[in-house]
Amino acid sequence: MKKIILLLLLNGFISYAQEAKDSLLPKDLKEVIVIGKKTQIHEKLTKSLATIDEFLDKGSKVDLVKRGAYAWEPIINSMATERTLITIDGMRIFGACTDKMDPITSYVEVSNLSQATVNSGQQGSCFGSTIGGAIDLKRTQSKFGTPNWNFALNTGFESNNRQKIIGSSVNFADSTYYFDTDIMFREAENYNAGNNREILYSQFRKLNFSGTTGFKFRQNQLIEASVIYDKATDVGYPALPMDVSLAEALITSLKYVILPKSPLLKDWETKIYFNTITHRMDDTTRPSVPIHMDMPGWSETFGMYSKISGLKNNHHFLANLNSFYNKSVAEMTMYPADPNENSMFMYTWPDVRTFFTGLFVEDNWVFNCHSGLKISVSIGSHTNEVASDFGLQSLQIFYPEMEAQKSRFLKSMAVNYNYNKNNWEYGFGGGYGERAPSVSEGYGFYLFNSSDRFDYIGNPNLKNEKSFESNIFFGYKKEKISTKITSSYFHITNYIIGTPDDILVPMTIGANGVKLYTALDYATIFNVDFNAEWTFSKKWKWNVNLLYSRGKDSNNNDLPLINPLSYKTALSYTQLKFNATLECVGNVTQNQFGAVYGETKTPDFALLNANFGYKFSFAGSKLYTKIGAENILDNYYTTYSDWNKIPRMGRNIFVNLTFSL
């Protein structure tokens, strides 16, 4: 296997992370993972009907925590969702699951996505406070023009878990009106890890619908309405003690865009939105449960933003006023085996209301065609209120002086310089940011973590977490070769993490104890990634990506969920309507792991993948085909980000077809 790895490292990795290129604007640590039009997905992805999770996993700045075969949790710069910001078309959405079974990325399908913009650190604070960075998922949108209809039918099958995929889209646009509709259904059985070992409770079923319509009622004014409906049922989570019987989301918005006639202003976009999430955890399918539990959760968010951009001399400026109001409720009811005993009820999220209003201002100051400086500043008002008297009284057992409401003031700023000349580019910068504790960190009540097997209790007295960051990159690009190395460093004070309390008694049967969320003095996280692409000819291309991260707390302990050295490399061939890729993906042994936080060592692994695509054209129609094999050698393996070391999928053969008119 080591010989195979060394051989394939001489080949490349097809990078789906395309840097936004504009020589007149300063470049930053932004990664734009592009799909483009629906009819181009077979060319952009190794698996054209991949899930959003698989799609994001191709980016160099994003990794994912996996608790099963569905709904993986994104990590940016080795930081999980508490320290990052994820939006869909700029909309704030909050999951309704205390165990993170419903990340925001699970509510979008690859067939209605145009791109995912990944911003590092404080450069991702346009729509709210963040520490690690932000992901904005942008859906496809037709453009005004000559009348044009587009129809597409997507279907696919995967051999390992018998996944069936079927979907379609209808799009229309003319000079004043457009609409885009997309529907996708997936159903999968349990998957097999390497050596044909079945992973129980890894099945899922999912339906997603997306619709957008826009009307240009004046030459420079547009109004747009959109809706997303997503429903997942019978979702198994083999790494957790419970599955999910229902994860349902309704996401709506209304947007108004004006192109001002003023030479100073470029565009002004205002959006109001509402979304509601329902999530029900279920243990009824598990064979042996000490005590049956119902654990539903709900999240509702009302929000808006008003974003304006313009140009004044050499200054490209952007301002965004954004606000949201969120209601998060989660319950747990335990039913004893003895029907004569009373059931027990408690709020795990005690009806927490969060109100945020923030202002983000950015100036891209272009010195000349070679260099520029980007400066951004944001301020925000953040208020939490526990609306449930019962929930408040429960938390006051631990915090007698606790008030129902707590307000915070959040600040951030970033400065980044860029230089580009004679095929060379480099840049450096720094930033400062703050975040408030999440609902779980501040107000969670006996949340069981199946990885370290502790019950967690929130702490409303936590201070704002603060981050000081620095970043640097170097790059070289010519006609046939391009290379880039990027590095970032975060020094995070008041680092929020759970620490054991020996006095408290756990609620969960079999738990190791109770942890209270507290703040360490600080923690540090270092990331470095290297990308290279070599174009041999018009037909052959080679890419390679290396990524390494290191995380330590103030007690010199290794942090959990920190990426060891990983690599992706592939060789691709394209000729007219045919394309093919041979890929190797792997991690080295994870020797620096968070043992204090319940992590264990993860061995190295290496995978071989291959795919082939062809585009058929006939009578004004097109048929895109993608056939491939993942984990060709059927390795049994797990990664550092697999919850409870749940093994990944073994050999999988897939067929994806897209027919369009």
Describe this structure in words.
By secondary structure, this protein is mainly β. It has one domain: TonB-dependent receptor, beta-barrel domain (Maltoporin, Chain A), CATH 2.40.170. The chain is 4% helix and 57% strand. The strands form 4 sheets. The chain has a 22-stranded antiparallel β-barrel. Strands 1-2-7-8-5-6 form a 6-stranded mixed β-sheet, with no helix packed on it. A hairpin with a 2-residue loop joins strand 14 (204-218) and strand 15 (221-235). The longest helix is centred in the middle third of the chain and has 8 residues, at 389-396. The two termini are 45 Å apart. Residues 1-24 and 38-42 have low confidence and may be disordered.
What is the CA-based Rg, rounded?
25 Å
Count of individual beta strands? 34
Contiguous uncertain segments of 5+ residues: 1-24, 38-42
Q: Looking at the structure, what is the overall shape? A: globular
First-residue to last-residue Cα separation: 45 Å
| Beta-strand content bin | over 45%
Properties at a glance:
5 helices, Maltoporin, Chain A, 57% strand, 6-stranded mixed β-sheet, 34 strands, 4% helix, 22-stranded antiparallel barrel, mainly beta, disordered N terminus, 661 residues
Short description:
This protein has 661 residues and is mainly beta. Helix content is 4%, strand content 57%. The chain has a single domain (2-660), classed as Maltoporin, Chain A (Beta Barrel), CATH 2.40.170.20.
